[in-house]
TrEMBL record:
It comes from Micromonospora profundi. Residues 125-237 form the VOC domain. It comes from the Bacteria. PROSITE patterns: VOC. It holds the Pfam family Glyoxalase_6. InterPro entries: Glyas_Bleomycin-R_OHBP_Dase, Glyoxalase_6, VOC_core. Gene3D superfamilies: 2,3-Dihydroxybiphenyl 1,2-Dioxygenase, domain 1. This is VOC family protein. CDD domains: VOC.
Length: 238
């Protein structure tokens, strides 16, 4: 039994606005979420949804996860940056060095993302969304490899990465320690269980997950935390 990565969920004060930004930037379809907010659908059968849920809490720290968008050429990188800025993104400084080739931007609510330079061999063949880059320990990379049934494609110097056997975006962890989350994680995974829901919750707990504060459970979603304490949710059957 494994879980499937159903969605990456962003808390947002204006979920429709941020969802529209990402739908337009990625060239994907946006639909209303039946529970709350909006969803950007995947563009193929190996992708995952982006869900944007309403919150009244402001963003106060850098997210523990961000997207790395790929480029086929220097011109394509410039076009992606220009398109993102036109849609409402802005340049930000997260400590990147002048000689680094990637461009760091933030969406209309400050969610960080990178537009990677051409020639990045690690992300070759992953698609436009090359990776979901995360703070996290080696142990967390191992945990998510087991949780999702995705093999490790990188494991060196406490940095890990996994990828679906069917391809698509990688999920990477840059090593400890995870950055402060400002009290809770505004970006998190949402999973669906293959098979018995409670049995899958028990399996995730046996792999090293913990029950999150039950006050953070919402309708149809059980809150857990991975071994680094980063929140994720498992959707209950409907």
């Amino acid at each position: 039994m494994t879980s499937q990565l159903f969605a990456v969920c962003f808390d947002a004060s204006q979920p429709l606005r941020v969802a529209r930004f990402w739908a337009d930037l990625l060239g994907r379809k946006m639909v209303d979420d039946p529970h709350d907010g909006a969803v950007v659908l995947p563009d193929d059968d190996v992708g995952f949804r982006l869900r944007f849920a309403a919150t009244a809490d402001p963003k106060v720290v850098q997210n523990r996860m961000h997207f790395d968008l790929t480029s086929g050429s220097a011109e394509e990188q410039q076009q992606t940056v220009a398109r993102a800025l036109e849609l409402g993104a802005r340049h930000i400084d997260v400590g990147q060095l002048p000689e680094e080739g990637h461009v760091v931007l933030a969406d209309p609510e400050g969610n960080e993302f990178c537009v990677i330079e051409a020639g990045n061999n690690f992300l070759a063949g992953c698609g436009f969304v090359g990776a979901l880059a995360c703070d996290g320990s080696q142990a967390v990379g191992y945990f998510w490899s087991e949780a999702l049934g995705w093999p490790l494609v990188w494991d060196q110097d406490e940095e890990t990465a996994i990828q679906s056997p069917r391809g698509g975006a990688k999920i990477t962890w840059g090593g400890p320690p995870p950055a402060p989350n400002g009290g809770r994680d505004r970006v998190r995974y949402e999973l669906v269980a293959d098979g018995d829901h409670q049995a899958e919750i028990d399996r995730l707990l046996s792999l090293g997950a913990t029950r999150f504060d039950t006050a953070h459970d919402v309708a149809g979603r059980v809150a857990l935390a991975d071994p680094d304490g980063t929140e994720f949710r498992v959707l209950t059957p409907r």
